[in-house]
Amino acid sequence: MAAAEKLDTHQKALNVNLDPTTFGSFAEIGAGQEVVRWFLVVGGASGTVAKSISAYDKEVSDDLYGRGSRYVSRERLDAMLQSEWAQLLSQLAKTRGSQTRFFCFVDTISARNYAGTNLAHGWVAMRFQEQPEGEPNDVLLHINMRDPSNVLQQEAIGVLGVNLIYAALYQLQSKESFLENVAQDVEKRIEIDYVDVHGRAFQSWEQRALLLEAVRAELAQAVCFPSNGSPLPPMEVLHKKAVVLAPGSFEHLDPHHATIHERMLAAAIEQLRGETAEQTLAPAGFFCLPATSPVPGDPPPANEELLERIDALRARGGDVLLFREQELYTMTEYVNRYTGEHVRFVVGLSLLIRVFEDRYIKLAGRFLEALSRLFAENVRIYAYPMTSQDLRQTIKTDSTDWEWTETDGWVSAEQLRLRQPVGLLYEYALASNFLIPMQIPATPSANAQAP
After folding, report:
1. Topology at the third CATH level for domain 235-437
2. pTM
3. Tens digits of per-residue pLDDT, 342-353?
4. Taking the C-alpha atoms of 374, 375, 376 and 379 in order, what is their torsion angle to the nearest 10 degrees?
5. What pLDDT shows up at residue 31?
6. CA-to-CA distance for 179 and 195, rounded, in angstroms?
């Protein structure tokens, strides 16, 4: 079958059913049996469906897949995959194994509940053989569902599942086209913010590059690279956490700048910890790197550049969130999906100036709308000081919009002044404590330029 074919969901399911070499099982929890339903209604399902199961009851699910894990989690997904695959082979390998490419599709989903109070997300996986009696290959996804109703979310899961099965069986030419095919027709309805693959079918594919591609292709708003261990869905590191976000382009990878970045984030975490009543648990801190260029119109950084920056930040003990967009208000909206706790940005004056100079042409309300979206009820900006010398280099020499005074060669946010009338908004942000000046570092470095 041609990889370039753009088939609809019905035709994909029918093509799989009519392929005499494919046979598999389906286990779906939490959003109906929407994936297998496609194969059952298009005709020829007896050629594909060995079994379909939906273990909604917790005791039934525990009996099938074991206790001890959350029901919508990577651990539960792995248990489902192992159990269903083992059963499929034990029952059918002897009679059909020599001429059949077996596959197993599983998902565990938290679709929108009746009250609309839950986070609509889930885990989806497929194990499959490239040829009869071949070694198994795995692809696993974490998804966020953006449709407003349970019915629409179930519908989107059905399309995504058929896409994944078809792409795994017939469309493995490249990681870019694979992700595009998996998301076909649900690009705006489902986010894919975690991808993991294993097996010979994916031996040249690297997980971090897959996650970057998910962001580049606008399938994910953000992906997460912890300092220790493998990537995780952002939801797992943000859920109900007090959070400090350190945004920047992080183009300078030398030890000097790395120390500045590390110092800024640590100081902001300590300051937020002092604000919160809970003293036993430190806020979570993240370096926030956009996949776009900070200069409008410039091409985005290459994947190799982004990975180099991510690795440099992780090597300094920093957890990294890679965002699709660089505007701070988009980061506010994203993080507030998962937490109602305090959210703080820590930025150098150079980035703070960009926030107030950007025209925000993508928003109908331009700068005023961006400012209102940025400063949600739980969001504030910590402004990290900058040397006067570095500040002069940051601001264009022909610009008369900004003035400042300094203390021992340093400038803080409260010493910075912006021309009117926008300057009134800057003064309001300071007076209202939306913008919080941080203290000048106790041991300043002569060229400590914050991002």
Report:
1. Rossmann fold (3.40.50)
2. 0.92
3. 999 999 999 999
4. 100
5. 82
6. 9
